[in-house]
Amino acid sequence: MAKQVNRFARAGVALATFAVITACGSTTTTGTSSGVNAATATSAAAFGGMSGLIAAARKEGQLNVIALPPDWANYGAIISGFTAKYGIKVNSANPNGSSQDEVNAVRSQGGTSRAPDVLDIGMAVALANTTLFTPYQVTEWSGIPTSQKDPGGLWYQDYGGYMSIGYDSSKFTITSVQDLLKPAFKGAVALNGDPTKANAALNGVMMASLANGGSLDSIAQGVAFFHHLNQLGNFVPIQATTATVKNGTTPVVFDWDYLSAAHGKDVPTWKVFVPPNAVLGGYYAQAISKTAPDPAAARLWEEYLYSVAGQNLWLQGGARPVEMAALTTAGTLNQTYAAALPPVGGTPVFLSPSQATTAATYLDSNWAQAIGS
Amino acid sequence: MNRRRHRRLEPFRTIVLVVLGILFLVPIGAMVEFSTRGVGINSPRTLSSFTSIFSYPDLTGAIVASLELAAITSAAMLVLLLPTMVWVRLRVPRMVRVIEVLCLAPLTIPAIVLVVGLAPLYQWININLSDSILTLGFAYLILVLPYAYRSLDAGLSGVDVRTLSEAARSLGAGWATVVTRIIVPNMSSAVLNACLLSVAVVLGEFTIANLLNFENLQVAIATIGRANAGVSIAVAVASLLFVFVLLLALSFVPRPGSRRRRVRIGVL
Amino acid sequence: MTTLVSSAAEPAGPPFRGRLRVPSWVGVVPFFVYVAAFLILPTAIVVGGAFAGAHGPSLTNISALTQPYILDSFLHSVVLSAASAVIGAVVGAVLAYAVASGAPNGVIRRVVTSACGVLSQFGGVTLAFAFIATLGGAGFITLWLQEHGVNIYANGVWLYQLSGLILVYTYFQIPLMVIVFLPALDGIRPQWREATSNLGGTSWHYWRHIAGPLLLPAFLGCLLLLFANSFSAYATAAALINQGGIIVPLQISNALSSEVGLAQANLASSLALAMVVIVVVVTALYSWLQSRTARWVR
User: Fold this and answer.
1) Is the N or C terminus of chain C more exposed, i.e. has fewer CB atoms within 10 Å?
2) What's the predicted TM-score (pTM) here?
3) DSSP H or E segment with residue A84
4) Is residue C56 within a helix (H) or strand (E), and if so which, with residue range?
5) Which of B88, B230, B243, B90 is nearest to B163 (CA)?
6) CB-count burial class (<10 Å; 0-12, 13-18, 19+) for C215
7) Which residues in C lie closer than 8 A to residue A15 (C-beta atoms)?
8) Domain-embedded: residue B28
């Protein structure tokens, strides 16, 4: 009897040990500072000014960000700059995540200490999920153009760029989008993602559409263009990464200009082309999660991003910071970085949310057939 | 007769091992070649991609967490799965198929979808029990079930479980002794392979840890890899090497009863 | 000579001295409890989503599965999994035999099993890149062949199509087969070989009548594992064929994390449910095959 029960006892001990080990490794979250409810503060004034905010954030000790890879618009330097300035540890999760992944994480991890505090998402996802955000207005609120922020402070655009074609100038010359149909580009052209899934790719197809006689309300010409490109064998379906660019497998990539500019690190002859007849712009937006585990740190992060230092760091990454006009007037825009931005002729246009939805619906029904084998 | 078969077997073995070895090493070689490239044409080879890996601050924490998870998962797998499989073969043979299907089930659902189902469970666990990355062990144990089961099953099929266990029990052994001192030594290579696979699965697991916002080895690697092109490949090569050396070291752990197997080449 | 009592149906444990008679089901309780909590429950949550509509339970997600592009992706998935499983199983079995017929504690065996352990879990963007760097448009083998006048991509780049995926998948299927099949090969007794040759049989007789049938159940089991492994693999395909959803896991990923407003979590659930059904069907087929071939094996 003793021996038979022994087996169960051992299994029970093992499972209990398992549970004890996991419990021992647990961390407890620190509460918010006394007096101020950081989770509902709508500006730095609620903390008694920036010093109060900084103190509250330091007390929390950490910040959870999501989907901010180091090579995206200079986020590597932005994150290390934040930690160096305030001594707050930044936990960067899911670096390759999409905007939808960020919102999914906020929902599925609410209440844990790992839930994302702040979000950097595309406009379509932002507008569809405003119930997850809490309003906050940074000190530089007036520097953000009215059309680029939510009046209630739920979301506010942060940086943007123009859809471009990045290419290795030692192999090709591109003066128009139609150049890509030439035989020299066989097996060379790639999109940054699938347009039914990724915002950057959708804008890439829309830019091609604008350059081929389409309009913001019609992406069909863009789909037809890529269909043609695919039939010629010029289009490759692989995911373009820094490695495939450096390796030469994807020497021509449709991508946001600030992301494309980053390839210049690996390929010195990399150039960024924005077609003068199709200047399609797109901005991303910031938001603070209502269920943020570190609300004070989240607000400090936003203050940092919208300070002169933060905006210029984005500029260094080749993106156009949202306060660019205000900073230029005040003379605090970094002129070296501004000069390095790719030249843009023509008037920029932006997709409205309804136009984006129309485009997405069209792609959903037609993209797979257009580039199918 | 033995010698003739031996003479035919050796060249066969050599050809198979050499050909497949080359085929498998070529893509890895391409990765190493790429990660040692400098910037721009004709620039010299450099190891800077590899050395810059270690400047990432959270890497050690991620490595330690992954190693702990690997150990916990392998141990839990042996404790949970092996006795169950032996018991089922002896006492409840009709359930063998049920166990087999259950152990294959984790592979039928892609990890990205499994996370959708695991997320509410983990939300509860992380709020009420523990927030540690080690709670991933619960999910990882499920993930290694298909591989471990197949490995252990292959080993068990070569052991006459019924005869051995009845003989041992008739001599007074309890179940624990039967499993640990009779059955396991007879399938030591299966047990080792199951552990090897469990360690490899845990160290290579990315999707679930990533979507639950934990930072394990592969998530840290993905983050490091976004620094630049060379680093993204260098870090993958380094990770492969690391796990390979770890598994090689594991294979030197003395297996119970391994002394009994004599070296008889070409007898199969 | 004592005769051991054994019956075909549920045997009772031998009632030895004062031992507690534990019901048969007790031994499987820990396993079932754990699996119920961490596998059945999440699966039920996922599958429940398949039947959820905007206003309560509905079958719209299930009927959405009949759209042509989704049916196509299922076909591609099955073809990809079956092909990579068969190739992986056959080549893996040969490699496993080459390893098992050597010294059990030798260097080759240790190195090969460790390497196979690592490579069986090697996938995703880096595996895709490894093949792109080797056989891609600018891969060194492609360029070397072009220098010698051979253009392997004269009819389109097959690496970025289903055939390329099959090739890349075998890269982790073969090592996986080696690891899970090796214990079966280790279970072969040298006595069987000797007995065969003593009775005048050749290698062919040995494999055809002795070792083959004995290894077949394990081989089929490993084949099934390889099929399921490949069926649900996602990251490698996502890196190589990022456009369109050529296989089911890519469709699922599109449905789950589309950031252009096309996310439909419930469609992802119904796709996953369909995947489960397919694997259940394949497992049933395997089960039937097993019962046919393993009839005389204890």
Assistant:
1) N
2) 0.85
3) helix A75-86
4) strand C56-57
5) B90
6) buried
7) 30
8) no
First to last CA, chain B: 13
The total domain count for chain B is 1
Q: Do A25 and B134 touch (CB under 8 A)?
A: yes
Classify A161-281+343-371 by CATH class: alpha beta
Burial of A144 (0-12, 13-18, 19+ CB in 10 A): buried
- Mean pLDDT, residues A294-315 taken together: 95
* Amino acid code (one letter) for C275: M
Q: What DSSP element (H or E) covers A287?
A: strand A280-289
**Chain A contact for B228 (CB, 8 A cutoff):** yes
Contact across the interface for C101 and B207, Cβ inside 8 Å: no
In CATH terms, the fold of domain A41-159+283-339 is: D-Maltodextrin-Binding Protein; domain 2 (3.40.190)
pLDDT digits (tens, 9 = 90+) for B106-151: 888 888 888 888 999 999 999 898 888 999 999 999 999 999 998 8
Q: Which two tokens stand for residue C35?
A: 């699996």
Q: Do the domain assignments include residue B223?
A: no
Q: What is the dihedral of CA A121, A124, A130, A132, to 10 degrees?
A: -50
- Could you say which of A7, A95, A242 has the minimum Cβ distance to residue B222? A95
Reported residue count of chain A is 373
Answer yes or no: is B18 within a domain.
no
Query: What is the CATH classification number for the domain harbouring B160?
Result: 1.10.3720.10
Contact A238 C253 (CB under 8 A): no
CATH of domain C43-50+66-293: 1.10.3720.10
Q: From residue B8, give the alpha-carbon distance in Å to each of B5, B15, B58, C198.
A: 5, 11, 53, 19
In a domain, B258, yes or no: no
For B46-65, what is each residue's pLDDT tens digit?
A: 888 888 888 887 888 899 99
Q: What one-character DSSP code corresponds to residue A149?
A: B
